[in-house]
Amino acid sequence: MNNILVVDDEAIQRRVLASMIRRALPASQVWEANNGKAALELMHSQPMDVVFTDIRMPIMDGLDFIEKLKQSFTGVKIIILSGFRYFEYAQRAIQLGAYDYLLKPIKEESITEILARVRESIDRERARQLENERIKRQLTSTMSVYYDQLLRDWITHGIGGAKFQEMKEHFSLRARGTVLVSRLIGEELLIGQEDSASRVSSMMISRMESCLQQVGLSVSFFKEDKSHMITVLTYDGPGPALESLTELAHRFREQMLAQQGIVLTIGIGGPCGELSGRGRDSYREAVEAASFRYFLTADSVIPYSAIAGRIRSMHYDLLKEEEALKEAIRMMKSDLITATLDKLFSRLLEGGFPYPDQWLKSFLRMVYGIATVIKDLMEERKYKQLLSETESSLSRCADVLEFKDRLTAILLEFMNILRSNRSNLHESMIEKCIAYIDSHYMEDLSLELVAGRFFFSPNYLSSFFKNHLGMTFSKYLSHIRLKKAIELLKSTDMKVYEIASRVGFKDDKYFFRVFRGRFGLTPDEYRRNLLVEGKARE
Fold it and tell me: 269: closest CA among 280, 277, 258, 256?
């Protein structure tokens, strides 16, 4: 109780009462007025918590004063001052809404007692008011959550007729409509502190409804994950032209960018002739339209009708480019990586756009295949971590331009990993390569097969054989096979064609030709000479 007013035309009684109140409540401010009119004028400039007023006063008596006070002010506690002769007036005042009355002459202990009761009454009323406000806020919030969920259920998988009618009446929806989806680029803006996120969400809803009010009645709400705002625009008649709706969506987007720094892509679904059934279809179209900003990087508001005829499914057919990019990485040719990606992107985007999720899955599959180039050069844990980071990086791209830049950077990183490891390990890898040839010479080996087995380019492996062994890959392979053939000629009685097949020559005539070219004798002649030499030694 901060302000207390004493109203009495008798100055001495008024001042005595005011003094008693000041002693009882030193922290309160006590005001005085000599009649009801003066008291009302004072209260218009200085609100009061408690008023002590006499009944019989000139100009405006206590009863008139109480009536007017009740009309203009609420929550004021009125205490009547009355003598025994005017007790019936006190009763009338109670009927008008006075809190209590005091009989004159007034005793100080009576003042102390009644002020204590008034304070308790005010505290109880304020507590009830706070509780009522809390319950009201809770109820409002609960109802808001209920209807928001009802909207989400309807727009995503449908609701029954009774619930749709309830929702329609609550939001005053019209029969026809169009759904818009405002997709946030950088939705972390609405995942921060709860108060801030709620404020931004409310502002977006308010701005959108304000922009659309000239063409219809709209209701907006957010998807549970806050990734986009859904707006259902409803109207009577044919509805707004698509050009007008697109312009209004642009206006909303510009406002949010200028005022909050929020970047939006807005998809516009097709019109619904019958909102209850077609609303979900319009929502799906709006979501698809917004998602295709991934390819339409220059567009920020995209009607579904603008992309419907350009959507095509994407199936994995990147094996050719996968092998080409592997080879470019093995050859350390960054320009070839860039050129291959340029051609690939042009091919895939010519004449239409795939669904963004299909695009991402296809490219991730290609990248996983290319990554095998460096798999044996890394610990398994680090290799898996690299693939996980690669997938995360590509998945976060806002559009195809960013995707291409990140993909290029990832493949160049693969090349750098290979380069840094190759300088340290190529000698040992070549030794393993030679050992592999020495133990698999009898198989159908080729330069390309062996190079791929050890993640070298065929050109690199061919150059190494020439520079370090002084012969080509095929010469070395032939050398090993002939060496093994001589061992078999010496130690077995196998027929020559059997030896040729055993050491890797599929054509025995070619074996004869190669053997003669190397030793100047046929395999049979070589074996006979061995026998002659053996007998001579005996």
Answer: 280
Give DSSP secondary structure letters for 117-173: HHHHHHHHHHHHHHHHHHHHHHHHHHHHHHHHHHHHHHHHT---HHHHHHHHHHHT-
Q: Structure pTM? A: 0.55
- d(C-alpha 441, C-alpha 429), whole Å: 18
Task: Kindly tell me the burial class for residue 317, based on how many C-beta atoms sit within 10 Å of its own C-beta (0-12, 13-18, 19 or more).
Answer: exposed
Task: Give 10-residue mean pLDDT values along the chain (538 residues).
Answer: 88 91 90 91 90 86 84 85 67 77 85 90 81 53 71 84 85 88 69 62 89 89 87 88 94 90 92 84 94 92 92 84 91 93 93 91 94 86 94 93 96 90 64 87 90 82 78 89 91 90 89 89 87 60
Q: Are 282 and 177 in contact (CB under 8 A)?
A: yes
Q: Which residue spans within 455-513 are E strands per DSSP?
A: none
- What would the two tokens of residue 129 be? 């008011």
CA pair distance 522, 511, nearest whole angstrom: 9
* Cα separation, 30 vs 40, whole angstroms: 15
Alpha-carbon distance 196 to 68, whole Å? 45
Q: For residues 389 and 207, what is the distance between their CA atoms, to the nearest angstrom?
A: 38
